[in-house]
Design a protein that fits this description.
By secondary structure, this protein is of the alpha/beta class. It is built from 11 helices and 13 strands.
Length: 287
Amino acid sequence: MNRVVANGKPFEVEPGTTVADFVRARDLDPRFVVVERNGEPLERARYAEVALEDGDRLELVRAVAGGSHGGGLRERLERSRLYVVTDAREGRGDLEDFLEAILSAGVDIVQLREKEAEAGDLLRWAPVFRAAADRHGSLFILNDRPDVALAAGADGVHVGQNDLPVGAVRRVLGPELLIGLSTHRAAEWDAAPPEADHLTAGPVWETPTKPGRPAAGLGHVRHAAASATRPWFAIGGIDPTNVGEVVAAGATRIVVVRAVTEAADPAAAVRLLLDRLPEADRVSGLG
């Protein structure tokens, strides 16, 4: 067996395994992966002919046609299924390892949410999120602060009903970056301004991450599913035990916090949630 290291993790591979074979074994499509081998970019046309050798070091980055901004961001948003919101994990001191684990397992979007943090702290943590998202072709969203999102090089911002209005957020961010907006009942959903690229519907169940916020219930999910004209995510108290109910109500995308951030094995929690969501080819702009 040959021993190789990919994105900092060791793997044993059979002699003769090509780069394309290795990429497919990671459940990735070689057409949409950028590979660096031993510090040098590898032409995609050679993935199927270059055999891995003992000691090779690889960096794999999921690529998206259309670039990293504008249409590229919205294409990634369209394909996204699992969105994880996390704090900076200062108490655990494992932010880099946590992000690497969950993004490697298939998280599409990661949001930095630190409600009480000053802008300087957000800017200190943001590069860790940005670098991790870039390694995996995922989206990095900042909570609440469009000014800091712009300064931090985030892909967008998520705001609530009582935050800066979406129209003002768009003026801060410009046309390219993404804006997400929370909705908690049908009237808010129906009134969501067109400048918002995606919406959340919830909390489906009461959750300690939103103290005092009553549950919106599965009825709000059903309303969203029946009337969606843009990508949207169910949110609030969702975990592997109840995600099936949310999917049955019409959701194809979810946002989670504790189900992943408090899991003993965050990567395993991600894989379990993804297994219970519709396949990516069934996720549309309306789902």
